[in-house]
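Still learning. Any example?
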Amino acid sequence: MLRKMTRLFILSAIIAIGAIVFWSKFLSNSDLVVFHGNEIKVTKSGEITFSWHGHESVQGQLGTLLTNHPEECQDSELCLEWDLQAQLQVEREETGEGAVCYHIHWETTPSTSTLEDCFFMGPAHWYGGGEVEYQRWPLEKWDMSMTPFISADMFLLYPEYSGVYGSVIEPYWLSSSGVGILVESSTPLHVQVKNRQLCLRSSYDNSKYQQPEGYSTVRLDYTLCTGRNVKMVHDYMRKRYLPIPKGLPDERMFTAPIWSTWACYKVFVNESSVMDFARKILDHQFKSSQLELDDGYQVTYGDFTFDPHKFPNPKGLTSDLHKLGYRVTVWIHPFVNPDANAYEEGASQGFFVKDEHGEPGIIKWWNGRGSLIDFTNPAASKWFTDRLRKFQQDSGIDSFKFDAGEANFLPENFRTNSKLVNPGEFTTHYVDAVSTFGPMIEVRAAYKNQENPIFVRMMDKQSSWDWNGGLKTLLTTAITMSLLGYSFVLPDMIGGNAYGDSGFQETYLPDRELFIRWVELSAFLPSMQFSIPPWKYDEEVTRISIKWTTFHEEFIAPRVLKIAKEETVVDGSPIIRPLWWIAPDDPHATRIDCEFLVGSDVLVAPVVDRGVRARDVYLPSGKWKEPSGNILTGGKWYSQMKSPIDEILYFIRQ
C-alpha cells in the first residue's frame, strides 16, 4: 500500500511539475501585445514577430540582456517597459510606397549600460553591413562575433584588429524576406552576425564610442521596414536613407586601367623604375587612366616632398610621364609622424586629434607611429589641403590616392575639435575634405559619403583564391559596397597585393591562373587597376590581359557610364547588382555568391576556383544571349558550361 501511495505521489509530482513548466512556457510565450492587425506580435518573454500583409517577415528577441519581462506602458502607440531597466517605443509609418516602417526607440535607466536586440535569419538570406576580410555572401555564412561597428583597417596584423569591420561600412542590412534595418548613427552600435542571427547591441563599453556629456542612459534607435520582397524594401530605403552621388568620377578612370607601383615595387621605387614601368606599359600596347606612385617616394611620413636621392627631379619626371600620355597621381594618408618637418607646426597649431590629456594623440599605423590630422577642424583641413596643393603645383602631379581614414585610428579617449556623435563621422570629414581635389581622386574609407562623386577602393586583397580576402571576395565586396550606396567601386589591384610571408613590403609573382581569372572578373567592374605587370608572366597572359582591358573599354565602360548617368546619379541605383535585383522572388537568385549583374542586362559568371574550366550557371527568368549569339531560356540552371582559361561566361538579357 505504501509503495502504491509513493508511486502515486511521484506521478502526481511529475504531472504538477510538467503542468507548471507547460503553463510558465505558455504564459511567457503567449502574446503580450498584438499591434496593428497582427503586423507586430510581442510575447511576454520579449519575442517579436514582424509581418507584412499576413506573411511573417522576421522574428527576433527584444532586450536579450535584460533580466525581467516586459509590461505595456502608455507613452506611444506601442510601448513596452522592462521595470527599472529600459523602455521601448515603436512608431509605425505607412510609407505610401508599399513598405511599412517601424521606428524603434530604446532607452535605458541609469542602472543599465547595455541594450541588445537579435533577429533570427531563419530561412531567409541577409546582406549588407560593410567590408570584412571574409566577405561571404549572404550573411548567414558569416561567423562575426560581437564587435564595435566602426570602420577599421582590417588588414593590420595586430591582435586588436582581428575580426573587425573594414574601411567601408553602413549600419544597414537587408533580408530576402523583405526586411530592411537601418540603425541611427547616434547609437553606439556593436554588431554580431553569427549562428544565423543578426544582433544589434548599444553600449559605450570597450569601444571608441563616447557618451555625450550629461547622459547617463543608453539608446538603441533603428528603423525596420517590411515589404513584398527584398527589392521593394531596398528601393524604398536607399532612396530615403542613402545619399545619391552628386556627379560622376573622372570618366577616363572608367575606361582605361589605373597602373600602380605598389604591388610591383612596394616601397622600393625610384625615378628610373617609374619611367621603366611607364615605358613597358606602352611597349606592351596597354592604355592607362593614370600612373599612381604609391608608398616609397617620400623621406618622412607627413611631409609632402619627394626623396631627393630616389627622385632627384620630380617635376621633370611628371613632365616626362605627361609627354608619354600619362596622368600622375601619388599616395597620400592622414598621418604625420613625429620625425616629419610638418609635425611641430601641426602640433603647435592644434591640428592633430588629441588624447584624453589634450596632447596630440600618438597612434600606431602600418608605417610607425604618428598623429592623425583633425579633419573636424576647418583650419586643420585647410592646412592639409593647402600643403597638398603646393605639393601638386611644385611637382606637376595631377591628383591623389588617399589612403586610410578609418575610425580605428582615433586615439583612445580621443578629443576632436568638433564633437563626434559617432566615431565614423571622422571618416566622413576626411573624405569630404579630400574630395575637394576633384573627381580624379580615390579613397579607401567611407562612412555616410555616398554623395561624393569619387571612386571608393576596396581594401587590399590577398593574392589567393580563398575567402580570406582572396579572389572570391572581389565579387562579393563589389556587390556589398554597391548595395550600401557606393556605386563607383574601384576594385583592388589585379592579382592582389602580392604580400610575402615576411611582411607587406615584400613582393612576389602571384599564381598565373589566379592573375588571369582576376583580369577577367575585373573587366566587368566599373574600373580596372593593375600593378603586377602581365608581361612578367608570358605572352599569353599579356594577350589575355589586353583582350579583356579592350573589352572593358569598348563594351563595359560605355554601359557603366550610361547606367551611372541615367540611374546612379538620378535615383542611386548601383552599377554592380546582385541577381535578385531582377528576380527578387527567385530563391536561387537570392543566395548565389558567384554571379552578378552589370546594370540589369549583363549577367556575369566568373571562374573563381583554381583549375576549373567549366561551371554551373543559373540564369533568372527571361531570354539570355551568349556571346556566340545562342539564346538560352532563364529560370533554370545550366550544368558545366565551358569557361576556358582565356574566357569568362557572360550573358545579355534580351
Notes: Confidence is low (pLDDT under 50) at residues 1-28.
